[in-house]
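Example record used in the benchmark description.
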Amino acid sequence: MRTAWLPALGLFVLAPVCAEYLWGYDDSTGHPGTLLGNLVVFSPLYGAPALLIRERARRRGLGWPGILLLAAAFGVVEAAIVDQSMWSTGYRDIPYWEEMSVPTYLSPIGLSLYLALSFVGGHVILSIGSPIALVETLAPRRRHDRWLGPVMTWVVAALYAAACALVLADAHATGEASATWGQLLASGVAAVGLVVAAHVVGRRPALIVPGPVPRPALVGAAALVAMIGWVAIPPTRIGTALVALLAVGAVTLVLRWSRRGDWGQRHVLALASGALVAAGCFAFLTTPIGDVGDAQKYGHNIVLLLVVALLSAWAAHRARPGYRRARA
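Model output (structure tokens):
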């Protein structure tokens, strides 16, 4: 089997853009050369697992429930084991980190509930789910195919392992790695549990039930509002409870919609596009760390928002019912 180079490369690059660059929080914000150079690490760190998760799901027929549960496992590994930011009440001198972590910090286990919910949820939505949905829609003829050949699968896995080792080594060198062995063990168990759940839940046949499905535009608008609500809710105890309720409500609603016969790729794309555009809009309110001028910050925000908006519009065009017949 040959590798589908174009969609694979697209996902390899888009995943880190959505995971890291879209928020515009880092000191690389507005520095094109640095952003491009950082892809040497960020593409293996985010793009490689996105490819591997998609490949596993398509090979095993896990569907979107399986993809999202595998994405949650990745989120746990990334935030709790690799960079260990989930356990920290002060990380990389980010000025608002204590505000995010301290109100819901549980001293007995050393975990901030808000950070855990935000990081794992963010990786599910932005690092893995939305990039896969967007690239699959842009490649309609290869949507259900495997994209990686056997050799490239191992190459991508090796790149991911190397990126994880590099980030973990840097976290230890800078003193940011603060997780105890008990925390690392619990994180590993949680990640394995999510992987098992992905293979159990993902293989269950979806039962089609009658009922209307909103138009894709309304689904996208709902995703945009939910995403903005999620990031706008303050990281207090009450706010964290509201975020959890919002997440449960959104998952329940999408599950109900997705079991109806009229649900299709245009709705999947609408969910992804709404979330990405919402993140791009909210990024205008983010204060980057380091020496980043206003022109650099807002230029970065505008360009990244335009990138995800234009890619979403292009994907929506390719997802039209008559597109494939018109191209045939």
